[in-house]
Design goal:
- The two termini are 26 Å apart.
- With 421 residues, this protein is an alpha/beta fold.
- Helices cover 30% and strands 15% of the residues.
- The radius of gyration is 21 Å and the shape is globular.
- Strands 8-7-9-10-11-12-13 form a seven-stranded mixed beta sheet, sandwiched between helices. A five-stranded parallel beta sheet has the order 2-1-3-4-5, with helices on both faces. A two-stranded antiparallel sheet has the order 6-14.
- The protein folds into two domains: 41-153 and 294-366, Rossmann fold; 158-289 and 381-412, 3-Layer(aba) Sandwich (Rossmann fold).
Length: 421
């Protein structure tokens, strides 16, 4: 699942409505209604971890957001305005993020699609200006911010139980002997992992080994040896990026050790077989996104559209360090455009937020699980299961050929209630 947004990396668009079509109707010639707006353009900002802590870490977020805006602009933009993306590098420095966010408040209409482990440093600026921030947050202090709208609401509040119930049914014995590795590089990752653990236990799974690892770790030989000796029969990791999950699979195989290997969306990369030296064959994914790296292109039309436009921006995006932000940038752009279009030809920040407050059912035209509720910050309970077979990610039972499994429910954090704006 996607619990790790703040770790190392980390459904119909309204139930009866698809993403609102863009239109080229002429924009009003009156004075701009907010920073970043002219008669012909609207500029939005984005801050990503680009050069640090790992070069190119979240470049995919820029790729995905830019790709969606290119797609919209090819249709004439929104109300006669082309959307421009103003991107900045966080340099992995909180002071830099704060300064860049303060600058964007004065030059850009909104923030869209950013991806930074330090995005919490944006909070004071966006709250002070009541600036819409449409993105998937990583920092815990943004997960319930009144001006932040996530197309994929935070699992730090409500965790889907469906994947656990599937694992228990599919692997009744192995699911009683689970080992977990998770990133403890950010506070939100630790909180998310705790909720993951609570939801897993409430679903009847038993966790017998667990360790949080630092951002400077990428190999897990010692953990593999301990888990093998302890009789761990299943990995159930939500926080391992593809490179890390590939290393874990390789190190496990070298020990002649074969636990069931279930990973989350962060491990979804198109070169997993090559990265793991073939050791990841049989690995499972459980995630709330379609197989957007091409596998679902025939079954889900939006996947085909996404693939076409994002690979125009970066042909190697799906082999990057973390491909996940590309689809998150795309759906963030989609959610923003839906609200911008609905706000009319003279949008203000307040009118766009008023439209975002109405989006209680979002699925990114099938890219995401149905039932995402950005307005109330409630995630979907739905998911898919895929498996690496002969080097290719393939949907497996009980996942339908298109669409999602919508069994189970949501396990809430103690005291949490749906967000009220």
């Amino acid at each position: 699942m996607r619990v790790i947004r703040g770790g190392f990396v980390a459904a119909a668009v309204l139930s009866a409505v698809t993403v609102l079509p863009v239109t080229s109707a002429g924009a009003d010639s009156s004075a701009p209604t907010a920073p970043g707006i002219t008669k012909t353009t609207i500029t939005v900002g984005q801050i990503d971890d680009l050069s640090q802590p790992v070069p190119g870490l979240f470049k995919a977020a820029e790729d995905g957001t830019q790709a969606y805006f290119n797609y919209i602009n090819s249709q004439g933009g929104v109300n006669g305005r082309k959307i421009q993306l103003d991107t900045k590098d966080s340099t992995f420095n909180s002071a830099t993020v704060t300064s860049e966010a303060e600058s964007m408040v004065n030059s850009d209409f909104a923030m869209v699609g950013g991806f930074s482990l330090l995005d919490g440093a944006e909070k004071a600026a966006i709250d002070g200006a009541k600036m819409p921030d449409v993105t998937v947050p990583l920092a815990l202090n943004l997960s319930s911010d009144p001006n932040l709208y996530s197309p994929i609401p935070s699992a730090t509040n409500d965790y889907p139980t469906g994947p656990f119930l599937w694992a228990k049914k599919a692997f009744p014995n192995q699911s009683q002997h689970i080992g977990i590795l998770f990133s403890d590089a950010a506070a939100s990752a630790i909180v998310s992992q705790q909720l993951f653990d609570n939801a897993a236990k409430a679903s009847g799974l038993k966790i017998e080994y667990q360790r949080g690892f630092g951002s400077n770790e990428s190999t897990f030989d010692a953990d593999v040896l301990k888990m093998k000796a302890q009789g761990i029969q299943m990995y159930f990791d939500s926080q391992l990026p593809g490179f890390y999950a590939a290393n874990l699979a390789q190190e496990t195989a070298q020990q002649g050790y074969h636990p069931v290997d279930i990973q989350g969306i962060a491990a979804y990369i198109d070169n997993m077989a090559q990265s793991s030296g073939g050791a990841a064959n049989g690995m499972y994914l459980e995630q709330q996104e379609a197989l957007y790296e091409g596998e679902d292109a025939k079954a889900v039309p939006e996947v085909s559209t996404f693939d076409k436009w994002v690979t125009k921006v970066d042909p190697k995006v799906f082999s990057s360090i973390t491909p996940l932000p590309s689809v998150e940038g795309w759906v963030s752009g989609m959610l923003f455009v839906q609200a911008l279009k609905a706000a009319g030809p003279n949008p203000t920040r307040a009118s766009v937020e008023a439209q975002l407050d109405k989006v209680t059912n979002f699925d990114g035209n099938g890219l995401l699980a149905p039932g995402m509720n950005p307005a109330k910050n409630i995630p979907s309970k739905c998911f898919i299961v895929a498996q690496l077979k002969d080097g290719t990610w393939t949907r497996v039972s009980p996942t339908p050929k298109s669409g999602f499994i919508c069994e189970g429910g949501l396990h809430p954090r103690a005291g949490w209630k749906p967000q009220t704006r």
